[in-house]
Amino acid sequence: MSRHDYTISGREIVAQADKSGNGYTVKVGESLFEVRPIADGLFSVIVDGHKKTAAAVVHNGTTYVDIDSIVLELKEPSQDGFAGGAGDHGEAPDKIFAPMPGKIVKLMVKVGDTVQPKQQVVIVEAMKMENPVVAKAQGTVKAVNFAVGDQVPTDKPIVELELEK
């Protein structure tokens, strides 16, 4: 069994996948999905007794999944992309910026908290999607410059860290 933890719309989601014959049984929350390959990139997905066809393709490191004309774009964040965004602030690992202008819907840290690289610190809603923003480095939170409900730009840090030496 493999376990995957996701944050979708600010909610923690746990997905578990078990090999079952030539496919998988996938449990997301309390929902069960039977996933079977049909052909290269095509899958049969049975949910609550209803059969759907899903297509998946990988292009330039991004996986696109189409189920009933709903397209999901899945990609692993690169180490360089953490807490970056518009104007890429990669040179400032002690500052955490919004990836795009939006509204803060959840703050997961406060002044004095210790954070690790890749730890989620804030969720910013932009374009009707919730975007987790993570720390690039280990450190202690020295400033939280915005509150839940605030609109944030990409050029002002949401959180500032005192980096570990």
Rounded to the nearest angstrom, the radius of gyration is 19 Å
Which shape, going by the Cα principal axes?
elongated
> How many structural domains?
2
**Straight-line distance between termini:** 38 Å
CATH architecture of the largest domain: Beta Barrel
Low-confidence stretches: 77-88
In N-to-C order, the SSE pattern is EEEEEEEEEEEEEEEE
CATH superfamily of the largest domain: RNA polymerase II/Efflux pump adaptor protein, barrel-sandwich hybrid domain
Overall mean pLDDT: 82
Order of strands across the main sheet: 1-2-3-4-5-6-7-8
Short descriptors:
16 strands, OB fold (Dihydrolipoamide Acetyltransferase, E2P), 165 residues, mainly beta, 2 domains, 4-stranded antiparallel beta sheet
Report on the structure:
It is a single chain. With 165 residues, this protein is mainly β. It has 2 domains: 2-74, no CATH class; 79-163, Beta Barrel (OB fold (Dihydrolipoamide Acetyltransferase, E2P)), CATH 2.40.50.100. It contains no helices and 16 strands. An 8-stranded antiparallel sheet has the order 1-2-3-4-5-6-7-8, with no helix packed on it. Strand 3 (23-28) and strand 4 form a beta hairpin. The protein is elongated, with a radius of gyration of 19 Å. Mean pLDDT is 82; it is low at 77-88.
